[in-house]
Amino acid sequence: MAVRRKALSATTQATLRSKAKASKRYTYGTLAKVYRRGQGAFLSAGSRRVPMAAWAMARVNSFLRGSRKHDLDLRKRKRKWV
């Protein structure tokens, strides 16, 4: 039986789309995956003082800044041709 997830809210979608457009390196789909993983991380070990949406968006912002702590499989490696 497949689990159906709730769709992301309209404001979250708009924010992720604007971040994807500004970055020019990552697509909306990639940022949505990072956001979903952030929600999962919150559910596994989140803080009571931080809402789930803030936790997930912080993970997206960290991903865009180039953090090497998480979501390394979603980063595209650039090849250097010599």
Number of strands: 0
Number of helices: 3
Using only C-alpha atoms, the radius of gyration works out to 14 Å
Sequence of secondary-structure elements = HHH
Describe the structure.
With 82 residues, this protein is mainly α. Helix content is 56%, strand content 0%. It is built from three helices and no strands. The chain has helices at 10-23, 28-45, 52-65. Helix 2 packs across helix 3. It is globular and about 35 Å long.
What would the keywords be for this entry?
single chain, 0% strand, 82 residues, mainly alpha, globular
Question: What's this model, at a glance?
Answer:
The chain has 82 residues and is mainly alpha-helical.
Task: Describe the SSE topology.
Blueprint: H1 10-23, H2 28-45, H3 52-65
